[in-house]
């Protein structure tokens, strides 16, 4: 049997060390990718919640600003309509 020289031993050690470093690096990168994907999912969930709330508030604005509702409230409080003073509120 041939004995391995110091250069061969060093070469094989470098290859093994490199393989271990690559494996550790791969696990680290995959972990970071998974964390980033989870953060992205969390942010997307928050965005969706805020969009839903915004749509609900827009719907409330539309319901509360209907002219029939405003006229009825005015009539219930003995107010009369004066078209010169009517203004449309916008967001």
Automatic annotation (TrEMBL):
Q: Which UniProt keywords apply?
A: Cell cycle, Cell division, Cell membrane, Coiled coil, Membrane, Transmembrane, Transmembrane helix
Q: What is its main location?
A: membrane
Tell me a GO biological process for this protein.
Answer: FtsZ-dependent cytokinesis
Q: Cross-referenced InterPro entries, in alphabetical order?
A: Cell_div_FtsL (IPR011922)
Q: Which GO terms describe its cellular component?
A: cell division site; plasma membrane
What's its membrane topology?
Single-pass type II membrane protein
Localization per Swiss-Prot or TrEMBL: Cell membrane
Where does the chain cross the membrane? Answer: 12-29
Q: Tell me which positions the record assigns to the signal sequence.
A: none
- HAMAP family, per database record: FtsL
Reported function:
Essential cell division protein.
Protein name according to UniProt = Cell division protein FtsL
Q: Which source organism does the UniProt entry give?
A: Floricoccus penangensis
